[in-house]
Specification:
Number of strands: 16
Structural class: alpha+beta
Helix content: 40-55%
Largest sheet: 8 strands, antiparallel
Radius of gyration: 29 Å
Strand content: 15-25%
Number of helices: 15
Length: 488
């Protein structure tokens, strides 16, 4: 097997690094503009250079030099344009920058918008949508001006303490906070990823500025959620069977804390306030509002008549992947899985492809060599180098046994440099002519024996299985099995 076998993995690694830089830039966006710009630029450069390397190596042709310099700026410009649209979506809403209702987080407490300082608020936007008034607030944990907590801002910055609070205006009602429980399905089912999201979302969620007490409904609902309220009677009325069914049946509510307080219904979520988050979260809040039996008849009529379907609420904001993500998320929610954002869907798909494609190429090349279907050639050895692990001054230790030479296939002579000899058979000497198999798929690796082919087959199947499993859990999730409690 020659060192060029690493080519597909270098390409997969390049795309993975580009995606990681893009995600990191999204994390920095809004908090550290310079760091975000650097990450976006590096992502574009890595993506473009990896693509050009694939084009050059895959076709065996030389890429014009000007493309190596023109392609990265084009990709970077595309990323900058997308970033510009993300930064200007608020201005396109024709909304107000100052909150006219609701709350603003301050030191972990949700205070009235009129009494709040702006030390921790990054962005705020209020606008009307389908008869509702919506408010989005992006804030950070531990503002730099908080006295008595000199390390709070630094710690919050290290854990990326950026959160978004999406609010929907409601009639003024007593305070009710509904928090999902971690480990709610144990020991029947373990949900570590959902538990991590619950912790991440709730650690920065603001609490109402009111005296709250624990409330239990005496139903299975208490296993999944913790309810705290300033008025137990109101909370019992609020948590009707329909509301409890919605909260327990919709996976979205299972990882986010929602609260009623001060004429606002809100949900908090870790991350920056994006257009997709604003409208997706507010739609879920509108669905919850339409399920509550409000005493205010006018608001009850407004809430029940609002179009809270995906197409009705999001409209043109469904995005370019809506034809895939919409049916996919409905299928995922039907099986009890969390819905995916556009970025999450793209990330999962890229990772799955980065695992499957190189692994599949390696497995097919190895299988054809094992079955005798791969093209065969005679390799003429010109140079050999052994790795002697027992020699203290060995300069090639760790590089394995290397072979240089050339072989002819279809009338074309192909030079071979640093072919790593992996077979347990006899190591060739200079001047030997060895029968080898040449993989039919790009990268066309040289396979020197059946033992090498079998090892490479196992090596290729591992990422294929991992990528297939990731794709299956993403696109074709199975319904979770309902198991009975132990002892019951």
């Amino acid at each position: 097997m020659d060192d060029q076998l690493a080519g597909p993995w270098l390409i997969a690694g390049g795309y993975t690094v580009a995606l990681a830089l893009l995600l990191l830039g999204g994390r920095f966006d809004g908090r550290r503009p310079t760091a975000a710009a650097v990450c976006y630029a590096l992502s574009g450069i890595v993506l473009s250079e990896t693509s050009l390397y694939w084009l050059s190596a895959g076709t065996g042709s030389a890429v014009p030099g000007w493309l190596w310099f023109a392609f990265p700026p084009a990709i970077a410009a595309l990323a900058a344009w997308r970033g510009h649209r993300q930064k200007t979506w608020i201005s396109r809403l024709d909304g107000a920058g100052e909150p006219g209702f609701g709350v603003v987080p301050r030191r972990g407490i949700a205070v009235a918008h009129a009494d709040a300082s702006t030390e921790s608020v990054v962005t705020a936007v209020e606008f009307g949508h389908h008869g509702h008034r919506l408010l989005g607030v992006e804030y950070t944990l531990g503002g730099s001006g908080e006295p008595g907590f000199p390390e709070l801002a630094r710690t919050a910055d290290l854990i990326d303490g950026t959160y978004a609070l999406v609010q929907l205006r409601t009639p003024v009602v007593p305070s009710v906070v509904i928090t999902p429980n971690t480990g709610a399905f144990e020991p029947e089912r373990f949900t570590p990823w959902e538990d991590a999201r619950i912790t991440r979302n709730t650690v920065g969620a603001p609490k109402p500025d009111a005296l709250l007490q624990r409330l239990e409904t005496g139903t299975e609902f208490d296993r999944r959620f913790t309810v705290a309220t300033s008025d137990p009677e109101f909370a019992r009325t609020l948590l009707s069977p329909g509301v409890r069914e919605l909260l327990t049946g919709d996976p979205w509510f299972r990882v986010r804390e929602v609260a009623f307080h001060g004429g606002s219904l809100w949900a908090s979520e870790a991350g920056t306030l994006t257009e997709e988050m604003m409208f997706a979260d507010s739609r879920r809040l509108a669905v919850l509002a339409s399920t509550v039996d409000w005493a205010d008849a006018d608001f009850r009529s407004l809430a029940t008549e609002a179009d809270t379907t995906d197409t009705g609420w999001l409209g043109k904001r469904l995005g370019g992947l809506s034809f895939v993500r919409g049916p996919l998320n409905r299928r995922r929610e039907g099986t009890g899985r969390q819905p995916l954002s556009s970025l999450s869907l793209v990330a999962r798909s890229v990772i799955a492809l980065a695992l499957v494609l190189p692994g599949l190429a390696l497995a097919v090349n190895s299988l054809t060599a094992l079955t005798g279907l791969a093209p065969e050639a005679r390799l003429t050895v010109t140079t050999t180098q052994r790795a002697e692990a027992s020699t203290s001054n060995c300069t090639s230790c760790g590089n394995g046994n290397l072979v240089d030479g050339a072989y002819e296939l279809d009338g074309v002579t192909h030079p071979v440099t640093d072919l790593r000899w992996m077979s347990f058979g006899t190591f060739p000497e200079r001047g030997d002519v060895v029968d080898v198999a040449v993989g039919p798929l790009w990268w066309h690796p040289i396979i020197e024996g059946d033992d090498t082919a079998f090892f490479l087959l196992l090596l290729g199947l591992a990422p294929v299985l991992a990528g297939t499993l990731l794709a299956k859990t993403t696109y074709l999730p199975r319904p979770r099995r309902a198991k009975s409690r132990l002892g019951g």
